[in-house]
Amino acid sequence: MSSISRFFLAAALAAVLSPTAFAGDTPAPANVWLYIGWPNNGEVLAAGKPFRVWFGLRNMGVAPKGVEFPNTGHHHLLIDTELPALGQPIPSDRNHLHFGAGETETMVELPPGKHTLQLLMGDDKHIPHNPPVYSKKITITVK
Question: What global pTM score does this model have?
Fold first, then answer.
């Protein structure tokens, strides 16, 4: 294999394996930090009662959907799912909750069992930023 072929193969593999390869066009600040402020990882919550999920964000602003302003976006809460395709609009269903009015917290009620929660920022068109801005995934138990 020639060195040019190896170069293009390496570039193609890097594009496929990189989580930012298919991110949207809206730039995100390099020092942004998105996190779930509550509940904590490993938290045990009472079944049959809604609980508050608090969204934490540093070094980036929150703006409603449809508002295009540098270094801003809005929250999406992912419940019991993986990150969606990063170059496409974030789905809107029971596993992908949208907060397009600029909300920074919500009340959630989940059935008993283990659940995962993760935040993902979307731009004015619900497409993840480049690089994508997402929190660490946490696990909670409802019983």
Answer: 0.84
HSE at residue 11, side-chain half, CA atoms within 13 A, is 6
Which residues, 6 or more positions from 70, have their beta carbon under 8 angstroms from its beta carbon?
Answer: 27
Q: How many domains does the chain have?
A: 1
Tell me which residue range forms the domain holding 13.
Answer: 3-142
The residue to which tokens 């935040």 are assigned:
119
What's 29's domain CATH number?
2.60.40.10
Strands 96-98 and 61-62: unpaired
**pLDDT tens, residue order, the chain (143 aa):** 554 444 333 344 344 444 444 578 999 998 999 999 999 999 999 999 999 999 999 999 999 999 999 999 999 999 999 999 999 999 999 999 999 999 999 999 999 999 999 999 999 999 999 999 999 999 999 99
Contact 120, 81 (CB under 8 A): no
Give the separation between CA 13 and CA 48, rounded to whole angstroms: 46
